[in-house]
């Protein structure tokens, strides 16, 4: 029977959609979660306890009892021994299956019960004329309600028969890579013969699994490379300049650029001088000094006669950038526009006009910068700070402005190597791997909540020495109101405990202008202590702040803790970060706190974060806009990833039609995602 999605009932299609099945081939790739072994029959006497077994016998007794509750109890004999079967919820047809005298085959675990050995809720099948055992393991698939295993198995069986399972890769290549043929691999995974070690299947290390993982990784590598190539085919303004403006800014700075800053700036300049849009990710740990690099790149664009734009994820951060860049650029006579959602309509219109006329050479703001009503006169460079905080759509909107400007994305969340090789393979990456000199390392302390009072004294000490402290209130995911209340309470308590100092409060419910005012007061040291919800997480830069107290640190993710801690230690001051925790700690929380305590290296932390959370969580699938890997595991399959990467290069170079066929098989229906 031919499987045709067009003729399937609507309800089935809806269930398929939930499972991500859109075409027959998706069924081929819907691989079993596990298997049941119905290839071997045990005698009741020999069947081991506690693992699934198949036994067969005759029903010699069956009754519905009501004590201790309504249940169907049957007794089965096979000549070697007897076994009880108990069904606590049952249907009339099951009662018939287990009627006196019937021969049944039972799949389940045998346990010692009150009456004797028993199976509770086994899979029951009557043995009729056809008593042949299964020849392969029975696959169990992930499914949704309304689509049972037998139905799904049948549909997948049909798909396996009718889909083209021929290989997309040439035989010599498979031989070189020691990979098994695709068709054989999927057939095996759906219907493995009993001689195959189940462990190799469940751990996904069987050659059949390796083949599927390789194919998946290869498809991903190919699509990323093609995206990269497509970009290389677009044209962008050539921003090749003498760097005179940038030179004037660096001359005016109280510090010199670090070697790493100079190197990444050279990489950016090289890209911007080419006629193709740059798409470069600038990575640098918190405090590495990305802002000045961005400013210097923007000056090159401006010197070349174009505009630059800098977008930040929050108003606090955007405003801070605006102030800093205005200070830096004003002496050069460059007009900077400020655009944020909170601007009054009149001010907003004025800013938009500044950008449209080209009077403003640099525009700084939140995503308001890239709303439809804003049209740049000649946008040459778009910079996105903390890019991982933006969704893919916002990044796309930005790309749509004014042809194809060069793009610089900045992030303090380092991408572990395997992720960089896979999900970010279409970007060029520059890394600032050196902090500016004279920073003293941050001391991290793990302190139990019971010692909170001591920490208040610590804050007092820091403030008495003329420095400042952040006190971060816990994230309460279930309730924003509760989170706010905690912050208000903490603020009141700290104000009372530290009457000789000014304690400020900043939280997400404040208006942007109010937030900005409080941040400004903290910058001026009018406030010595700042109680905050996690709004201060990104990019805030107050060099005199030397203490960060984080409450309920056990609730926060590693990246967040690292970012928060990065708010201190920005100058030469000896700085501390206190992680207050409430026990008892869960296993993950324990691991996270250990990592953050032992390391201040963003890369180490990101790698551990990836290990603890896995890539889906790490990237946030919606956010990344790239299809997640279903089969391959970036931690465990690094070797396959390396291979796939090499093969992708070879194929695109020498056998583009093979590359195309491979992508058609693996990525059909997902093109939209890939364009991101
Ligand atoms: P991030 O990379 O986290 O965005 P910033 O750009 O905010 O870091 O820089 C952190 C601080 O370091 C700022 O106060 C900045 O002026 C300062 N800074 C940047 N580069 C240097 C340098 N080469 N030497 C000394 N200080 C620097
Ligand atoms: Mg920054």
What does this structure look like?
This protein is an alpha/beta fold and 676 residues long. The protein has four domains: 5-35 and 139-203, no CATH class; 40-133, Nucleic acid-binding proteins (OB fold (Dihydrolipoamide Acetyltransferase, E2P)); 244-432, Rossmann fold (3-Layer(aba) Sandwich); 442-599, Rossmann fold. Helices cover 41% and strands 18% of the residues. It has 26 helices and 22 strands. Strands 6-7-4-3-2-5-8 form a seven-stranded mixed β-sheet. The chain has a seven-stranded parallel β-sheet with strand order 12-13-11-14-15-10-16, sandwiched between helices. It has a six-stranded parallel β-sheet with strand order 17-22-21-18-20-19, with helices on both faces. A hairpin with a 4-residue loop joins strand 3 (71-77) and strand 4 (82-87). Helix 20 runs antiparallel to helix 21 (602-613). The chain is globular. The protein starts with 9 loop residues before the first helix and ends with a helix. Keywords: ATP-binding, DNA damage, DNA recombination, DNA repair, DNA-binding, Helicase, Hydrolase, Isomerase, Nucleotide-binding. InterPro entries: ATP-dep_DNA_helicase_RecG, DEAD/DEAH_box_helicase_dom, Helicase_ATP-bd, Helicase_C-like, NA-bd_OB-fold, P-loop_NTPase, RecG/Mfd, RecG_dom3_C. One of its GO terms (biological process) is DNA recombination.
Helix content: 40-55%
- The number of E-state strands comes to 22
- Portion in beta strands: 15-25%
Largest sheet: 7 strands, mixed
Structural class: alpha/beta
| Bound heterogens, unique | adenosine-5'-diphosphate, magnesium ion
Q: How far apart are the first and last residues' alpha carbons, in Å?
A: 39 Å
Helix segment tally: 26
CATH-defined fold name of the largest domain: Rossmann fold
The CATH class designation of the largest domain is: Alpha Beta
Mass-distribution shape: globular
Rounded to an integer in angstroms, the radius of gyration calculated over CA atoms is: 32 Å
Mean pLDDT: 87
InterPro entries: ATP-dep_DNA_helicase_RecG, DEAD/DEAH_box_helicase_dom, Helicase_ATP-bd, Helicase_C-like, NA-bd_OB-fold, P-loop_NTPase, RecG/Mfd, RecG_dom3_C
Protein name: ATP-dependent DNA helicase RecG
Catalytic activity: Couples ATP hydrolysis with the unwinding of duplex DNA by translocating in the 3'-5' direction; ATP + H2O = ADP + phosphate + H(+)
Family: Belongs to the helicase family. RecG subfamily.
């Amino acid at each position: 029977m031919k499987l045709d999605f067009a003729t399937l009932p609507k309800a089935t299609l809806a269930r398929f959609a939930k499972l991500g099945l859109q075409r027959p081939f998706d069924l081929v790739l819907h691989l079993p979660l596990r298997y049941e072994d119905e290839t071997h029959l045990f005698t009741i006497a020999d069947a081991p306890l506690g693992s699934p077994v198949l036994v067969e016998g005759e029903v010699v007794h069956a009754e519905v009892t009501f004590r201790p509750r309504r249940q169907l109890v049957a007794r089965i004999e096979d000549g070697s021994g007897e076994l009880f079967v108990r069904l606590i919820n049952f249907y009339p047809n099951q009662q018939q299956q287990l009627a006196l005298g019937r021969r049944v085959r039972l799949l389940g675990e045998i346990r010692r019960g009150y009456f004797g050995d028993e199976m509770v809720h086994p899979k029951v099948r009557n043995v009729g004329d056809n008593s042949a055992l299964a020849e392969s393991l029975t696959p169990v698939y992930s499914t949704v309600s309304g689509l049972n295993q037998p139905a799904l198995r049948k549909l997948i069986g049909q798909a396996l028969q009718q889909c083209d399972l021929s290989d997309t890769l040439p035989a010599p290549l498979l031989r070189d890579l020691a990979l098994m043929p695709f068709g054989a691999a999927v057939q095996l995974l759906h219907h493995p013969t009993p001689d195959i070690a189940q462990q190799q299947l469940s751990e996904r290390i069987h050659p059949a699994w390796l083949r599927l993982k390789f194919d998946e990784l290869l498809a991903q590598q190919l699509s990323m490379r093609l995206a990269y190539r497509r970009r290389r085919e677009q044209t962008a303004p050539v921003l090749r300049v003498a760097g005179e403006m940038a030179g004037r800014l660096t001359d005016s700075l109280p510090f010199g650029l670090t070697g790493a800053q100079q190197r990444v700036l050279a990489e950016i300049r090289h890209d911007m001088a080419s006629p193709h849009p740059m798409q470069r990710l600038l990575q640098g740990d918190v405090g590495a000094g990305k802002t000045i690099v961005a400013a210097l790149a923007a000056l090159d664009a401006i010197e070349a006669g174009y505009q630059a734009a800098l977008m930040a994820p929050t108003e606090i951060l955007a405003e801070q950038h605006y102030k800093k860049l205005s200070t830096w650029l004003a002496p050069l006579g460059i007009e900077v526009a400020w655009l944020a959602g909170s601007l009054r309509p009149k001010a907003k219109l004025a800013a938009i006009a500044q950008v449209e006329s080209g009077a403003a050479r640099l525009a700084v703001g939140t995503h308001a910068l890239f709303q439809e009503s804003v049209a740049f006169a000649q946008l040459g460079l778009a910079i996105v700070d903390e890019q991982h905080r933006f969704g893919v759509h916002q990044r796309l909107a930005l790309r749509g402005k004014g042809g194809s400007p060069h793009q610089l994305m900045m992030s303090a969340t380092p991408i572990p190597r395997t992720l960089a090789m896979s999900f970010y393979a279409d970007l060029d990456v520059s890394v600032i791997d050196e902090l500016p000199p004279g920073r003293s390392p941050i001391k991290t302390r793990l302190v139990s909540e019971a010692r909170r009072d001591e920490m208040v004294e610590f804050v007092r000490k820091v403030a008495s020495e003329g420095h400042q402290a952040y006190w971060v209130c816990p994230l309460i995911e279930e309730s924003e109101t509760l989170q706010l209340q905690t912050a208000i309470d903490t603020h009141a308590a700290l104000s009372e405990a530290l009457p000789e100092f000014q304690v400020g409060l900043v939280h997400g419910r404040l208006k942007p202008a109010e937030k900005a005012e409080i941040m400004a007061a903290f910058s001026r040291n009018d406030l010595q202590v700042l109680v905050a919800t996690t709004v201060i997480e990104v990019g805030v830069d107050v060099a005199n702040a030397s203490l960060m107290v984080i409450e309920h640190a056990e609730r926060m993710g590693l990246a967040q803790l690292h970012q928060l801690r990065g708010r201190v230690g920005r100058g030469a001051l000896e700085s501390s970060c206190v992680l207050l925790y409430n026990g008892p700690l869960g296993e993950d929380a324990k691991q996270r706190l250990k990592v953050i305590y032992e390391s201040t290296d963003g890369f180490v932390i990101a790698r551990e974060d990836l290990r603890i959370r896995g890539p889906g969580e790490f990237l946030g699938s919606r956010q990344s806009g790239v299809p997640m890997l279903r089969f391959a595991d970036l931690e465990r399959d690094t070797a396959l990833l390396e291979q796939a990467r090499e093969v992708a290069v070879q194929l695109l170079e020498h056998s583009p039609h093979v590359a195309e066929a491979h992508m058609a098989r693996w990525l059909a229906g997902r093109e939209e995602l890939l364009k991101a």
